[in-house]
Structures are given as C-alpha cells and as structure tokens.
C-alpha cells in the first residue's frame, strides 16, 4: 500500500488508504469479506456520490472540493470512498487528502479524544470524519468570502472595470465547481440518515442528522456567495453600462457642438462663382467669427437644456 494509516480505539478500527492498488483491494476483500461490487467500485473513479447497503456493510462515496492553487483555474475534487462495517471504517482515496492526514495525526496519541469520537460503533467515526471534511469546506468558503469582500471594495472605489470583471468571473468559476461537487450529495446524505438508523440502530439518528445539518450549512454558504456574486456582477454591469452611456452622450454632444464648424467650412469650401464675404478684406475673420458664434450658440443651447 502506498500510504496506509490504521487507528484502533474502543474496539473500533479506522483504516485510511491512499492510492489503493488491486493488491490492496484483494487484502480488503479477505479481511472484511468485501462485496465484489464494492471491490470493483474501489478500483475506478465514481463521478457521482452514492450509497449502497449490503449484508454487513455500507458503501458510501462522497466528493469534496478543494480550492485551486494560485495560478490554477479550476477547483479540484477529491473522491472519498467509505467502507463501513459495524466495528470498522475504511476510507480510500486517490491523492493526499490533507484533512484526513491531519485528523489521523490529531487522534494518534490523544487517547481521550480518540475515546470521545470512537463510540460503540463505526457510525461515530463516520460522523466525526465527515463533519471534519465539511468543516474544511466551510473554512475554504470563509476565505472565499474574504475575496468577495475585496471585489466589493474595488467596486466601491470604481477600480479598473476589466480587473473587476476578471475577478468576478474567476470567483464564479470556482463557485460553480463547488456547486457541481456538492449539489448531488444532498440525496445521498438524506439516504444515509435513513439507512444509517437501520444499519447502526436508532440511537445514531442525531449524529446522522448532524451530518446533513453540516451539509446544509455548507450549501447555505454557497448560496449566499452565489447571490452576492450575482449582485456584484449586476452592479458592475450597471456601472459599465452607465459609463458607456455617459461617454456616448458626451461624444454626441461634442459632435453637435462642432457641427456648425463642419457646415460652415463645407459651405465656404464649395467651388462656386460667388460666395458671401469671399474676397473681402476681412473675409477670414468674418467666417471665423461666424464659426465661433455657431459653436457658442450650440453650447449655450445644450447648457440651457441641462445636457451639459
């Protein structure tokens, strides 16, 4: 096994396997009498969460999003498979899951914490691990909220529009990845709550309900971030539209103000036999004065209409 951690407390065992091989799965089949369908599932990625109950086992697949590192665009998703027996829990995953490693290190050597979270059956361990995973997601979403506040501050300062659009788009992409990973889990966790009462007995009901409660907290945070980003995006689009309209208004006014100059220049530039003021000693200053008068007249008109 590339990376295996084993912890036993109160007669219960938690085994965490990173990057399981066929040899590892064969060993699990022998030790836990693993169902053939479960063994087959463990060797291939499962793209949607699921829960299956067998005679003495329950098989659960969940996905947890991990925020993209700086410079990467998309959020990665870790699939974690749970093989649940009455007295054991095995978790398998591909790639390192920092939360599980941290959790194992925290429990190792801390007998009181271990006894507190390893109750009379593996349901207690399952509750503890999933709660910690959802806590990790909530902590990432808290960082997400800080970044949203930064975008909001940029928007209030009327910062560079392109930079704001890019920041909002990046956050919306990440949020979409989170939603795609977590949305399908609602049905599975509701099913876990009902089937778990049968598998672990009714006294585990509050713990299983707490797992769905953790999920609801995460989903509510996601919805809140989604609404905030949509509001910021709409506000930014309104500001951009307002700025564009203002620019077009000013350009239109400038075009109308300079219209007399163009008209007069065109008239006196015509190749005709006779033009008024042409040939006069002060013809240039007369025509120039007419142009200035036209510009001032148009400027005064727009000013009186409060268009300037």
Describe this entry's structure for a reader.
With 308 residues, the chain is an alpha+beta fold. Helix content is 63%, strand content 14%. The protein has a six-stranded mixed beta sheet with strand order 1-2-6-5-4-3. Strand 5 and strand 6 (88-93) form a beta hairpin. The longest helix is centred in the last third of the chain and has 53 residues, at 205-257. The radius of gyration is 35 Å and the shape is rod-shaped. The model has no long low-confidence stretch (mean pLDDT 84).
In short:
With 308 residues, this protein is an alpha+beta fold. 63% of the residues lie in helices and 14% in strands. Strands 1-2-6-5-4-3 form a six-stranded mixed sheet.
**Per the principal axes of the C-alpha atoms, what is the gross shape?**
rod-shaped
Main beta sheet: 6 strands, mixed
Low-confidence stretches: none
**At the first level of CATH, what is the class of the largest domain?**
Alpha Beta
Overall domain count: 2
The percentage helix is 55-70%
* Structural class based on helices, strands and sheet pairing: alpha+beta
Pfam families: CorA
GO cellular component, one term: plasma membrane
Keywords: Cell membrane, Membrane, Transmembrane, Transmembrane helix, Transport
Main location: membrane
How are the secondary structure elements laid out?
Elements: E1 3-9, E2 12-18, H1 22-32, H2 36-42, E3 50-53, E4 58-66, E5 76-84, E6 88-93, H3 98-107, H4 111-117, H5 122-156, H6 161-182, H7 185-200, H8 205-257, H9 259-268, H10 283-304
Parallel strand pairs: 2-6
Antiparallel strand pairs: 1-2, 3-4, 4-5, 5-6
Helix pairs in contact: 5-6, 5-8, 6-8, 7-8, 9-10
């Amino acid at each position: 096994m590339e990376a295996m951690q084993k912890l036993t407390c109160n007669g219960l065992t938690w085994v965490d396997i990173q990057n399981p091989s066929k040899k590892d799965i064969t060993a699990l089949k022998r030790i836990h009498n693993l169902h053939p369908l479960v063994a087959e599932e463990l060797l291939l990625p499962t793209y949607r969460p699921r829960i299956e109950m067998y005679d003495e086992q329950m098989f659960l697949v969940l996905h947890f999003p991990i925020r993209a590192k700086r410079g990467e665009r998309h959020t990665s998703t870790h699939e974690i498979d749970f093989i649940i027996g009455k007295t054991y829990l095995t978790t398998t995953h591909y790639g390192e899951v920092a939360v599980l490693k941290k959790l194992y290190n925290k429990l190792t050597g801390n007998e009181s914490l271990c006894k507190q979270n390893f109750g009379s059956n593996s349901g207690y361990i399952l509750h503890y691990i999933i709660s910690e995973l959802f806590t990790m997601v909530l902590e990432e979403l808290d960082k997400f909220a800080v970044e949203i506040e930064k975008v909001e501050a940029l928007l209030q300062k009327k910062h560079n529009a392109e930079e704001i659009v890019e920041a909002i788009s990046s956050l919306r992409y990440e949020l979409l990845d989170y939603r795609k990973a977590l949305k399908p889990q609602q049905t599975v966790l509701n099913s876990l709550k009902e089937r778990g009462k049968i598998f672990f007995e009714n006294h585990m009901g509050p713990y299983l309900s707490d797992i769905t409660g953790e999920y609801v907290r995460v989903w509510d945070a996601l919805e809140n971030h989604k609404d905030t980003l949509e509001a910021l995006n709409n506000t930014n689009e309104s500001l951009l539209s307002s700025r564009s309209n203002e620019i077009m208004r000013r350009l239109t006014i400038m075009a109308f103000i300079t219209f007399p100059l163009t008209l007069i220049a065109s008239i006196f530039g015509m190749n005709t036999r006779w033009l008024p003021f042409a040939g006069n000693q002060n013809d240039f200053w007369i025509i120039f004065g007419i142009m200035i008068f036209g510009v001032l007249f148009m400027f005064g008109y727009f000013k009186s209409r409060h268009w300037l």
